[in-house]
Automatic annotation (TrEMBL):
Residues 43-176 form the Nudix hydrolase domain. It comes from Algoriphagus hitonicola. Pfam families: NUDIX (PF00293). It comes from the Bacteria. SUPFAM superfamilies: Nudix. This is ADP-ribose pyrophosphatase YjhB, NUDIX family.
Length: 183
């Protein structure tokens, strides 16, 4: 997936979720800016995430993010890589230690634009997060990266209790539960 493929997928992307639909035009506009794939674009930049589920669609893998102190899907900065699918897969492997990840489909699974709080030497900014659906074996050994405090599989039923109210995670959970991809 390159910049043109991303733009094409975004132009074709449809969602019944109003909050997600409101992001699409902003994502499309960002694709032509080479700095959008780099942290140097301080107003906001692309990130890519992996919504990792087991093949039976009963569990999702979440990380307790070290800097943000919240349970989130795995993912990270593009750091100049315009292939956001590749970024998501690399981040998923790096942050989980999982070697047998399987991309469910190459199309975008979810979009989210969210604010990242100011930290020393980093102003408050937006992440334009492009997410992909990935499967993994729940029995495979997990390895916690330096970016995480913890890493765990959660049943779909327990996600809300563990994370509290996070509309984007709840949306991905709902999409997975309603997905035509269900076994």
């Amino acid at each position: 997936m390159n910049r043109l493929t991303l733009k094409d997928q975004l132009q074709k992307y449809r969602t019944p979720y109003e909050e997600e639909a409101a992001f699409i035009e902003g994502f499309i506009g960002l694709t032509d800016d080479p700095l959008a794939y780099s942290r140097e674009r301080l107003a906001g930049h692309f990130t890519a995430s992996a919504w990792i589920v087991n093949p039976q669609r009963t569990h999702t893998l979440l990380t307790l993010h070290r800097k943000l102190g919240r349970w989130l899907q795995l993912g990270g900065h593009a750091d100049g890589n315009e292939n956001l699918l590749e970024v998501a897969m690399n981040e998923a492997e790096e942050e989980s230690g999982l070697k047998n990840l399987r991309l469910v489909e190459t199309s975008i699974f979810d979009l989210d634009k969210h604010i990242i709080p100011e930290r020393p030497h980093v102003p408050e900014h937006f992440h334009y997060d492009v997410r992909f659906l990935i499967e993994a074996d729940i029995q495979e050994k997990l390895v916690i990266s330096t970016e995480s405090v913890s890493l765990a599989w959660f049943t779909f039923d327990s996600v809300v209790d563990m994370i509290g109210y996070n509309p984007s995670i709840l949306r991905m959970l709902e999409k997975t539960s309603k997905s035509e991809i269900l076994l």
